[in-house]
Amino acid sequence: MKLSRTSIAALLVALVAVSGGCTLVNRVRAKNALNEGARAYKDGRFPDAEEKFRTAYELDLVCASFTYNGAEGFWTQPDMSWMVQASHESSITFGGEWLLQAMKAALPEFDRYIYRGWDDTLYA
Question: What does pTM read for this prediction?
Fold first, then answer.
């Protein structure tokens, strides 16, 4: 099947339209950089992993996928101004002043979710 230039252009326009503001090329490049970063981290090449993660972050933040596989995991950005940490013990920790303020604004019962330790008498 031979595609005309018009058909190819229409296909590209459709791909861009469904990509949700994240170009297809950047989405593929970001995913590749994340995978390379994960491999570098697993191999103990931490500076290389950091560089790959920065590259993925800079490609397009909209492409970020915050998935959690049940193990320890954390997400942040290069300047470490915020962090989200998920624990295998079913807890999620948020760090960073602006992020905490945003969480408090979004969750009316924010204080209810703060872990205060295993001994309630310490916080009475």
Answer: 0.43
